[in-house]
Amino acid sequence: MNEFLSPLFKLVSFRLNPQLQQKDEQESALEEITPEAVSEAAGTVVKSFDQVWENFLAHTPYMIAALTVVIFTWVVVFLLRHFGARLFQRTTSRKSLRDLFARLLTIVIWFFGLLFAAMILFPDFTPSKALGAVGLLSVAIGLAFRDIIENFFAGIQILWNFPFEEGDVIQCEGIVGRVESVEVRNTMIRKLTGELVVVPNLFLFKNPCEILTDRVKRRISIIAGVAYHEDVSRSVGVIKKAVESCKSVRDDDPIQIFPHGFGDSSVDIEITWWTGSTPLAIRESTGEVVTAVKKALNEAGIEIPFPYRTLTFKEPLRVETKNS
Description:
Shape: elongated
Strand content: 15-25%
Largest sheet: 5 strands, antiparallel
Number of domains: 3
Number of helices: 9
Number of strands: 8
């Protein structure tokens, strides 16, 4: 009797309790699925690692050969950086052009060295595929590093066309200093006050740039004033002799001294002469000329006036004295 009622009781329980029925169905489905044995999964993993290791060992000669090519390329580039400028001494006398040729040759050597190493490391990598990859990479790099690329080509233009070299004193948009080095992307300028300024080459390429030491000499002009009651012609002669006696004044160029105009309290005389082009030479020469002109005018009895002020009153002033 119990054997007959037990299945009937289970059937009624399934009908009355859907959750119990769903649980029983999940257990039945899990019993039907046969999971992979742990040992078989471990064997698959070990087999995969063995295959990767065998492929790595089989590819090791290619890796060693590619590394050898990279090291050889680095050695060639290192020697070229230190001795490359000497290779182009007969080509041009400009140091900037020799450095430019050496740097461009360095870039070409790195390009072909890395390309050859990649072809050894990946045998299916052909030059046509490399050029296609380089084309796509150049577009991406051009969009991402636009400023760097512009400064790079501006640096090439500066090294190729611009007349200044390392050691020249230049002035560009308020930056005055001596050029310490011209790199492909930046130019190092040491200001006259000692600070080092890193200037992007594109800035120098777009803006007017004055090369103050392009020649070995520069012209300087100052203004000296004499009183209105003094003889202007005599004053010009005295000043000219004083300037000619200065050691820093070049004697291969004429000294020009002309009355310049009427100042507030003096007749202004313009003094122009030539001296060295460096900032130090200009300061030294200016100081020597000013000292010599002042001394000569004093010895000649020619007055260098102070600013005069004349006061005019509409009505006469009455002077009163008080007796103490």
